[in-house]
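step: validate -> pass
step: tokenize input -> pass
step: predict -> running
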Amino acid sequence: MNDSELLAERFEEHRGQLRAVAYRMLGSLAEAEDAVQETWLKLSRTDAGDIRNLGGWLTTVVGRVCLDMLRSRTARREDPLDDTFVPDPVIRPLTRTDPEQEVLQADSMGLALMIVLETLEPAERLAFVLHDMFAVPFDDIAPIVDRSSAATRQLASRARRRVQGATPSADPDLGRQREVVDAFLAASHAGDFEALVAVLHPDVVLRVDSGVLVGGAAASKVVRGAKGVAEQAMLFRRFAPSARVALVNDALGFVHVADGRLQSVMGVTVADGRIVAMHILADPERLAGLDLPDDIG
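step: predict -> pass
step: emit ->
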């Protein structure tokens, strides 16, 4: 094995974590892959013999690449991010058998958190993701954001306060989540409005991201309150029998597949025995780019 092949092999050992960092930074699986590939290109043009801690070096490099991508995205965007935006979900079977997908999993990686991360300034997001999720020291993050370690610590602290104030405290027990999810599906299938309201938190939030081309009842929207969300469930109750339960990021959710094509993905947040948040991605263009495990589809 020559030096180039050896370096590529060492890089592959870190690919999973780099993809996880990039996904949390960008909220897009395709862009995360681009960031990882750019990191590899930077490594291939570097004298790896001078790198003492390859994992740490790669993590900071992919962070810098993602920061540049976020800043470029912000500069191109004329309008603020729409409230209906839902990040790319990670879909896995309930058996959790896919090691590559498992690397993306972490207790704090729910869609609700990903949505809050989208509201942070790029430097805040970087400081929070690298430090709070991947334990990168502030001294290593500071040069990336061109700030002192103390100022970088403040960036992460500010981001942490926003995250803690905006994300619901979800029930981590998949068994209890399954009871609530099954009750929601049963009520939807039966068209039982009162049962739907009962399984929804009074302040539940439904976020639907259908993209810019879908209109009518299926268009992007944000619905708040149990009755409003129950009305939406009743409107689309015909899809309940074909919904398949899967792991969507860190919790149970649903996927809807028709004629072999992914039609929508819903992430569900359960707390205290009721659904407190629902996030649906139904944008046909973005759905086409998602990987659907064979044992789900």
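step: describe -> The longest strand covers residues 261-271.
step: cleanup -> pass
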